[in-house]
Design goal:
heterodimer, A: mainly alpha, elongated, B: mainly alpha, 73% helix
Amino acid sequence: MTALLAVSLTVVLLAGLGVVMTHDPAAQCVVLGVFGLSLGVLFMVVSAPDVALSQIAVGTVVLPLMVLLAVRRAAQHTRAEQDPKHPDPQRPGSDRDPS
Amino acid sequence: MSRGARGLLAVAAALVLAGLAVLACTGLAPLGATRHPYRDRAVDAAVRHVTANVVSSVNFDQRGLDTLGEETILLAATAGATVLLRPSEEERRAGRRRRDVRPSAHPPPGVLAVTRFTGLVLLPVSLVLGADVVAHGAITPGGGFQGGVVLATAVHLMFVSGDYPALQRMRPVSLGEWLDPVGAAGYLLIGVAGLAAGGAYLADVLPGGTFTDLLSAGTVPLLSAAVGVEVAGGVVVLLGRFLEQTFEIGEA
């Protein structure tokens, strides 16, 4: 029991470090999902299945997906702003006349 | 602030936090200890109210008011995100124009056939699982919050399997915009019913029934279902707003 707890705590620690050390935000979403899953396992180990269920549903699915979508949308916006002379048909408003 | 100063500040803050965390944890009862005053009281109260899942008894009965606060936070967050992420008229026009010029490929490139198939198979399974987790919240681990999130993510398996148009045709966001406040209002009203019949807001006024029966635990399953409806609606609206910004306005 104590060994299992030590292992799952260590995995949480390493996954948390992984989230902080990952610099590319898109890759960070995936590591964040792994971190969420490791927390879910830890909650199962300390006999809290209700919290583990919430953690797995929110921490490994909804939160990383939301961050991923926000990162992707922000990247579209940055690309559209950096390249105003060459209108990209994929970007919003880039096909508008500047006048 | 320079990089060195920031690092120093981070290390100092981490040390303070670590010290406080150790201080806080040394006061806790050890894991698996036999003496646990709060557990004894919570389990007693749960058994008195015929609620097999003590955690649900704490969430929806003993601390029902706290859950009311939490689900109101979700409702407020969803409303706030909807206001912030709503597309401007200009963005709508640009999105429509691009879709007319370059309609999105169907099925979209890069989605494996096995991914599409798995999404299709898991969609009904996940919906049933979500409903099951909500319905059995009072007797097994789970409840409205967990089941609601499962229900909301189940719908988005369509997005994972590359069928965003089908997801849009289902219009889960319009439905979610109704479900979210309806669930929150349901919780409030069950609380008012407790006030009218039991003399206290959120009082457990329904008969307890038989221990571990699906319809036991008084108002707990009703409150759990209300939270399930609210959370499912709220998460669908939240994810829908993010998806809309990324795939309807950002790219066609």
